[in-house]
Amino acid sequence: MKILFLTPHLPLNSGSGGSIRSYQIYENLRQLSTVDILCCNGTGLRHRDVAQFKKEHRYQGNVRIPWVVPWFAKRKNPNEKFLRFLERNQYDYIVVRYYWSAFWFGLIGAENIILDCDDCPLELEIQKQNRLSINKRYFSSTLQKIKNIFYKKRYLTDISRVPVVTFSKKSHAIPWKSNFVILPNKIQPSSPPPKTVNHSVDEFVVVFVGTLSYGPNFEGLDHFICNIWPSITAKYPRTTLKIVGGGLPARYRKKWGQLECVKLCGFVENIDEVYSDAHISISPIFTGSGTHIKIIESLLHSTTMVISKLAHRGYEKTLMDGKSLYVASDDQEYIDKIFYLIKNPRFRKKMERNGKINALTFHAVKDYENDFVDIINIKMKNQMQTASNDIETYISDLDAAKE
């Protein structure tokens, strides 16, 4: 068996949540078969990362395609160069990360495709519509609503033509179909060094980790800094917010860089160092459609969290509020829960232990597990059912012709 893995991210067990999910899928596939990797990153990949990666993996290059699918875009067919590449390699399966990758490569409707949508992109469009309505921009909200109607119809039509579609969680934005499968986010557990936190109440380190070129991350963090952080530093002036991640827009870098209790760390190679002196981490995300894989990463590093309700989606049954982490429904609750964790180190350490245990139990990759064995079996079952239906139709047509 031979598989092509089409992904915008190099599958690395570090960096963005997208890279980590790609790594999870890639490692599953490598246990089953020979896997070629073709990247489709619209902005390009770091040469250093590519040079290191292709030494040990079957890397086929990067094709630059758009990151999104406009609602008015016409469906694509595979171009001749890509078709020749597929014919030359004769892949049994093509596993594709994201709907827009399958769209631009013209793979919608291909028989041997397994599509990992990860999250439903329609959720972001609905959020845009709701924000416009809240801000009383009714004409723009109506236009967005019309766009969403067309986008939803096309999106559902397209993914219904794919034999197997995986999601990290169920979405309220679309009806659930028989070819949809839940593939939850998981992380390869590591053995981070012991934490070096100072448990003095006077000194307290809060960390945020995420890709800062992603709008929901820097917008949510800006809301936190403007509306929540001032209350924290007013009561505990020796509290520091460490912001870790690359791609922060210049205007936010200038704005946040002027604040005394905020430290901009940029991209950090060794994630263990990020959590080593952190008392807690945060995920103040108020828009977006993702299940935030950095939550699992933080808990596996024995660093408990205070997160927004939106960031908690997908973890409601495994990482419970008040046991594995704290979930805040509004700004005041966010402030109160951070205060409580600052004042109660014993409770914080208990929550750290619980969070790590539950992250290991429900969201860590285990050596004996391979989610794609079941997914490929589902695909084969669907193909057999389709073939059976075709045979039944053919026989009934013959019978009708005889009559």
UniProtKB/TrEMBL annotation:
The organism's place on the tree of life at top rank: Bacteria
Name of the protein in its database record: Glycosyltransferase family 4 protein
Species the sequence originates in: Microbulbifer bruguierae
PANTHER family the UniProt entry points to: GLYCOSYLTRANSFERASE
Entries under Pfam families matching the protein: Glyco_trans_1_4
